[in-house]
Amino acid sequence: TRCRVHTVMQVVRLARALGAEVRGVGLREAIRDEFTAASIGAAFAEHHVLLFRNQNEVTPTEHVEFTELFGPVEPHPLSTRPSLVDGKVILLEHRPPAKVAARNDFWHSDISFSAAPPAATVLIGRETPGPGLGNTLFANMNTVLPALDAADADVLANVRGWHSAEKLFHRNNDSANDDPAVAMLPDAVAHPAVRTHDVTGTPSVFINPYFTTHIDGVSAEESAGLIARVTEVATHPDNTYIHEWHDGDVLMWDNRCTWHYAVRGDFEDQVRVMHRTTAGGVRPFFAGIKE
Predict the structure, then answer these.
(1) Strand (E) positions, 86-218?
(2) 143 φ, ψ to 5°?
(3) Beta bridge partners of 89
(4) What is the reported pLDDT for 45?
(5) What percent of the chain stands above pLDDT 70?
(6) Of 236, 254, 19, nearest to 148 (Cα)?
(7) Residues 108-146: b if buried by 16+ CB within 10 A, e if exposed
(8) Mean pLDDT throughout 268-281?
(9) Are 156 and 147 contacting, i.e. CB atoms less than 8 angstroms apart?
(10) Cα gap 289→41, rounded to integer Å
(11) What is the DSSP letter of 256?
C-alpha cells in the first residue's frame, strides 16, 4: 500500500541549461508515496535531468519499480549488455583487465533506433572511478531549434530522420570489449526530426550524430551538414550539464528532449559499474509533418 511520506522535497538547479538535484526524498519514497512521485514527475518535466544522491541501498527490484512510475520497463531490444531482473536492469560493468565494457562516448539519445524509443533512462552509479572521472554530459534539445538559422529550422520541422543501430551493432561485434555480440541488426526507422513532447507539448530536435544515418528529402552531404550543425548548437557549453559521479548517485534523463555522452578515456584502468533501466515511450510525433 502506498502512503503519504511527510518529507520536504527540494529541487536545486544544477545548470542553467538543464538538470536539477532532488533533495529530501529518494527512489524509495517515490515508490511508496504518490504525492512524492508526482512531485518528482513535475520536476522531471521542467529540468529534463534529475539527480538523487546516496541511493546505493536501492535494490535492482526497487530500481525497476521506480522506473515504472514513468513507463513500462523494457529490456534492451538488442541485449547489448548483461542484465538483472528479467533483463530489465542493464549492467554497464567495466572491471579491467578481466571485463572491458563497450564504449558510450558519443552524443546520442537512448535507443532512438526503436519504433517507440524510451521516454526515460534511470542510471545508478554502483561503483564509480572517482570525482571527475567517467563524467556524463547532457545537452538540452528543446533549445536547439530556435538557436539554428531559419533555413535549417524550417527543414528540420518538415522532414524525418532515419535511425539505425548499425554503429551499435559494430561497436559490440567488432570492437575490443566483453559485452554480448548483437545477433541481428534491426531495420532502420524514421522519426520526425522535430518531435512534440507527449507530456509537456514542447518541440525538440530528435536527431543525433550516432544513430541518425540520414535525413529524408535532402542530399547525403546536406544531411551530414544538418546533423553537424545541430550537434554544434546542442553541445555548446552553455547548453549542457556535466555530471561528476559519486557512488550511489542516480541520474534520470528524458530521452525525448536530451542527448548524453559518457566520457570514457580517463578511467580505462579503473572500475566503473552502473545499473540502467529505461521506461518505455510513445512513437515520436510532430504536428508539422503530415502523415
Answers:
(1) 89-94, 120-127, 136-140, 160-163, 189-192, 194-196, 203-205, 212-215
(2) -90, -5
(3) 84
(4) 98
(5) 95
(6) 236
(7) bbbbbbbeebbbbbbbbbbbbbeeebbbbbbbbbbbbbe
(8) 94
(9) no
(10) 29
(11) T
Give the whole-angstrom CA distance, residue 197 versus residue 215: 20
Nearest one of 121, 122, 109, 61 to 250, comparing CA atoms: 122
Give yes or no for a contact between 172 and 182, defined as CB atoms under 8 angstroms apart. Answer: yes
**Per-residue pLDDT tens for 70-80?**
999 988 888 76
Look up cell 529524408; give the residue.
216
Work out the burial of residue 66: count CB atoms within 10 Å of its CB; fewer than 13 is exposed, 13-18 middle, 19 or more buried.
Answer: buried
Closest CA to 288 of 206, 200, 231: 206
Distance CA 202, CA 142 (A): 7
Q: Which residues pair with 261 in a beta bridge?
A: 137
Residues 6+ apart with CB under 8 A from 228: 209
CB count within 10 Å of CB 176 equals: 7
Q: At 134, is the pLDDT very low, low, confident or very high (cuts 50, 70, 90)?
A: very high
From 77, 97, 96, select the one nearest 87 (Cα to Cα): 77
Q: Check: CB of residue 94 under 8 Å from CB of residue 100.
A: yes
Q: DSSP character for 11? A: E
Cell representation of residue 125? 552509479
Would you say 260 and 139 are in contact if contact means Cβ atoms under 8 Å apart?
yes
Half-sphere exposure of 43 (CA within 13 A, CB side): 24
